[in-house]
Amino acid sequence: MGIWRSVSVLFLGFLLLNLSVARFVVEKNSFRVISPDSIKGTHDSAIGNFGIPQYGGSMAGTVVYPKENRKGCQGFDESGISFKSKPGALPSFVLVDRGDCFFALKVWNAQNAGASAVLVADNIEEALITMDTPEEDRQSAKYIENITIPSALIEKSFGEKLKKALSSDEMVNVNLDWREAVPHPDDRVEYELWTNSNDECGFKCDMLMEFVKDFKGAAQILEKGGYTQFTPHYITWYCPQAFTISKQCKSQCINHGRYCAPDPEQDFSRGYEGKDVVLENLRQLCVFRVANETKKPWVWWDYVTDFQIRCPMKEKKYNKDCAENVIKSLGLDLKSIEKCMGDSNADSDNPVLKEEQDAQVGKGTRGDVTILPTLVVNNRQYRGKLEKGAVLKAICAGFEETTEPAVCLSGEVETNECLNNNGGCWQDKAANITACKDTFRGRVCECPLVDGVQFKGDGYSNCQASGPGRCKVNNGGCWHETRDGHSYSACLDVASVFGDSQCKCPLGFKGDGFKSCEDTDECKEKKACQCSECSCKNTWGSYNCSCSGDLLYIRDHDTCISKRGTEVKSAWAAVWVILLGLAMAAGGAYMVYKYRLRSYMDSEIRAIMAQYMPLDSQGEVANHVSDDRA
């Protein structure tokens, strides 16, 4: 018996009573038949609670119904059956019948045979149910964690229509759509995880602990950035009033039977008791509340992961002392947490746990929480493998397209469609540049931005580098070649009259500028060396002209002149330059001399004249002759 099944008649009776009034909501995705016309349309399908649904995206394929092993309970390789798609063909969606074995085993066998998705046709007419994993089955646990393809349950009547079309040799093309599986009412995604602190409940507990450790980093990035609002929850049961004094209730419950959890070892005579789990669940709830009050709700992830590592049941460390050491190491207020937990022996309600029991009841579009662990995203229960990439994809699907945070575009949630034929997008293999981009919603074909250079085009058949710097990236997609140390390029790093960059063969070449530029033979086409004394020799990308005899070729004038005449002319030119320079120097010296001499002579003459006659600018000179008058 699994730990989540009843461990006593007392809990069996309670669970039957509780489930009889529970409102279980099946999470669905849209299943659309593209062809044939006879069954064309949209149908509901229930998402399997294992594998990896493509939340936020869609998947197209063709339905295949095997001739043997139609329930999928045996390996298809035993019958030599393969569902692997040929290159260029649509993926195979394998249709199998319900019955004889676990849902998960059917999907596992089909996946091993190359199926991309599995459709399970119900064998009775009933409302759709969720295909869950086997309860505490160690053998099945080995393959469940390795299921990576999506699966869905379809109604019996619809399954019969698919089989009829396939029996008539008609190709059934379908599309599984998860884009509306998670609503996105605003720019923030709200999600909650119904979990448990017990680490000795087998495969599901191991899977849950592994997920919490793996998802911690992404969860904290989303929470710190304000993109999400996370809330942890813990399932608790109550003990019926008639049995509150029984040994089972006292060992598994606190607050006089109001809040209970199954015995971890399913043995009341040894090990930990159910009430130990309830107390730790309560402590973890209070850790979240106290951390949330300090505006650091993400610390809950640190506490839970540290507690799993430092306080495991196997090492007998699952206790209050170990928990308090973890709390202190994280800098949380221990007294506030103890106050939040209250008195576990009081014969009264615990406000925190009472709120958890009320939250288990479904509200709005969310059904009752009956499966542990359960993830709820934007009030919709998540279905599929509890794995980091799959869960992150579901959370990211809760954002409106183009509003998702950067973590949603990371490699963790890529669909990897670009690995197959480059996703049908444009690609430059030589430069290792592609327009294919994987996202959690599927691949998109968008011309890339490379080293600051934007490529423009439709992204499917054409992308051309544009703008400044385009020639630095694969030569702008233009022709280029190097020979004998000389390089030529047809790339122009400027805009044309139409506003776009262009490829044009350089001077000395002709061609389209993209794929080829051929050397022009200027000599043969008589574009150079046309003078009578000239001889022409073509070279790659240019030409050489030479003159006969003692002549020199002048390229600018396409003519030949005598080297001797050139030398004489050059000598006379040098003489004239020298003479002109001397003349200018002499003239300058004369001007200076003339100016300085005239200034000097003027000053000397004025001095001499001042001695013999007064000048107009001078006053009368005093007479120093002595007066002899008496």
Automatic annotation (TrEMBL):
It comes from the Eukaryota. It holds the Pfam family PA. Its main location: membrane. The keyword Transmembrane applies. Keywords: Calcium, Cytoplasmic vesicle, Disulfide bond, EGF-like domain, Glycoprotein, Golgi apparatus, Membrane, Protein transport, Repeat, Signal, Transmembrane, Transmembrane helix, Transport. It is found in: Cytoplasmic vesicle, Clathrin-coated vesicle membrane; Golgi apparatus membrane; Prevacuolar compartment membrane. GO terms for molecular function: calcium ion binding. Residues 503-517 form the EGF-like domain. It is a single-pass type I membrane protein. Residues 1-22 form the signal peptide. InterPro entries: EGF, EGF-like_Ca-bd_dom, EGF_Ca-bd_CS, PA_dom_sf, PA_domain, VSR_TRX. The chain crosses the membrane at residues 571-593. GO terms for biological process: protein targeting to vacuole. GO terms for cellular component: clathrin-coated vesicle membrane; Golgi membrane. Belongs to the VSR (BP-80) family. PANTHER family: PROTEASE-ASSOCIATED DOMAIN-CONTAINING PROTEIN, PROTEASE-ASSOCIATED DOMAIN-CONTAINING PROTEIN 1. This is EGF-like domain-containing protein. It comes from Rhododendron griersonianum.
